[in-house]
Amino acid sequence: MKYLYGFLFLIPAIIAAQVTVVSAVPANNAKNVPLVTTLSVTFSEAIDSVAMETNSSGDSRFSNIDSVIGHWYSADSKTMYAKAVLKANQAYFIAFIYVKTKSGAFLVSPFVSYFTTAADFPPYSVSGTILSGSTGVSPEGSAVALANENIMNQKSDGPPPFVAWANVNSNGTYTIPNLVNGVYWPIAVKDVDHDGKINPDGGVDVIAIGDSVVINSASITNLNMTFLNFTPQMLHESIADAETLAMKNLPVDRVLKRVSGYDVDTLGRSRGWEFIYSVNGNTMGKSVRVGNMDNKVSDINDSYFSWVKIMKPILNLKSAATSATVMMAVESAGGKAFRKLPVPPGAEMRVELSINDAKNGWFGGMPGGYDTSKIYWNVAYVHNVQVTNDSSNWIKGLYFLCDLTTGAVILSRLTGVADDAVIPSEYVLRQNYPNPFNPVTNIRFVLPSSGMTTLTVYDLLGREVSILVNERKNAGECTIPFNASALTSGIYFYQLRSGSFVETKKMMLVK
Asked: What does the DSSP 8-state code read for residue 456?
């Protein structure tokens, strides 16, 4: 669920210094707002603009406004402005989730303001209660939002496309107002450790995700959601749940062929473990997935099953060494050093653990050194390029074969191809680095095909500052330096155009 890890929130913490919102334009619940308008929010203290523009998600505020020309700060840094182009007869919201001042003060509570370009707001709402569940986390201080696409199937990075927002009351209740007929996907979040990020993988922050709701000329009540705890698990903590799901959902002739955990940490924990079974006389494959996001059973595709079906059965899973023991062994045998290698642009470092036979696994075809009749732990440290939501390419890897019952390393091998050999199948405009910068930064982008390409820099008022690229570029990843020594400090935008693709990102020059 890649959109959660970049998600930025600050839920009220009990701290000595706090900042409040003094005023907003348009005012909360304003009607008949002009289609071209300047939005502003004034705070009780001067805002730390660097912190606001460079937090880990690249943003600190959310809205359903889809056309913002630019934003800037007042001379005393207490007021934030944004010029927006709005649509007729539409309701809008703006939500400040993370605000930090120059004195180090933080926002008392998330700020939400509503306005509309129509004579009145849409009449419908969604309300309900957020429950602590097994997490024991109080819902007070959390936030609830509705997106107009399925959160679980989101294809783009960053937060979902929210269309409505509300804060949760002290008793856990909420009401999201100003909604029109349509299908919505709800999510509630709370930053329990008050670090400015929602990071459920750490096992502290929590989220709740509800089923889609349909508004059809009536408000919805009692949409209750329960917080989930996202603490990653070691393999042995997942086996019982997987066996229970398999017993309930798979035929009696099921045969376990492979177990794998993705994005495994140094303690041998994964957000989800996948148990692959062959069923119906080894003619089809089933996936039993157990983790901190969902427990489910699903089919596996023919390509994956054609590999799995020739694997040997796993008959002694409960006798396997713990995933923590295996990770301790491979970290000492070279995994820790691999983590320190530079990761190529556009890639990420990932670790996968699996249990299956070696002959039909990552060590298939390698000479001697292991008994091909046995089942082993397999560990892969890889530099991974995500091609689509469902597929990726490993461009470099360090593989380990480990004894199933002891976790001891038996074999290892390093593989790889040229770091630039893998080209993602879609356009990507990356965030510049460093950001903020002074005075040089690098802008990277990926082209899946050759074509006429422009990369242009604009100031806050939309004026062209520099044309960095204006030529036909070949498919692949490009890194373009930008020297802003002749410019003044402030926020700038860079826009990539190639074929029908257009995307704009912001960067900050600090001198």
From this structure: E
pLDDT digits (tens, 9 = 90+) for 191-222: 777 666 676 766 678 888 888 999 999 999 99
**Cα separations in angstroms, 19 against 15, 41, 45, 98, 267:** 11, 12, 6, 11, 39
pLDDT score of 57:
42
Give the domain ranges of the chain: 2-229, 232-422, 428-509
Question: Which stretch of 64-73, 250-259, 349-358, 409-418 has the lowest confidence by average pLDDT?
Answer: 409-418
Identity of residue 135: T
- What mean pLDDT, rounded, does the chain reach? 83
| Alpha-carbon gap, residue 78 to 40, rounded angstroms | 10
- Residue 508: partners with Cβ closer than 8 Å, 6 or more residues away: 49, 50, 53, 54, 435, 436, 437, 490, 491, 492
Q: What is the 3-state secondary structure (H, E, C) of 13-63?
A: CCCCCEECEEEEECCCCECCCCCEEEEEEEECCCECHHHHHCCCCCCCEEE
Helix (H) or strand (E) holding 353: strand 348-357
Tell me the whole-structure pTM to 2 decimals.
0.53
Measure the CA angle with vertex 312, ends 308 and 315; round to 5°: 115
Q: Across the beta sheet with 440-447, what order do the strands follow?
A: 428-429, 440-447, 476-483
Residue 151, SS3? helix
Mean pLDDT along residues 311-331 = 94
How many Å separate Cα 141 from the centre of its chain? 22
Tens-digit pLDDT profile for residues 376-414: 999 999 888 765 545 566 778 888 999 999 999 998 888
Can you tell me the mean pLDDT for 225-238? Answer: 85
Does 2.60.40.10 match the CATH number of domain 2-229?
Answer: no
Task: Look at residue 154 and tell me whether its pLDDT is greater than 60.
Answer: no
Q: 428-509, what's its fold?
A: Immunoglobulin-like (2.60.40)
Does pLDDT of 58 surpass 60?
no
Q: 443-453: buried (b, 16+ CB within 10 Å) or exposed (e) per residue?
A: bbbbbbeebeb
Q: Measuring CA to CA, which residue among 58, 55, 56, 117 is closest to residue 89?
A: 117
Q: How far apart are CA 288 and CA 269, in angstroms?
A: 18
Half-sphere exposure of 59 (CA within 13 A, CB side): 14
Point out the least confidently predicted range of 268-282, 321-335, 479-493: 479-493
Residue with tokens 């023919």: 302
Residues in the chain: 511
Cα separation, 144 vs 224, whole angstroms: 11
Count of Cβ atoms closer than 10 Å to residue 315 Cβ: 9
| Radius of gyration (C-alpha) of the chain in whole angstroms | 26
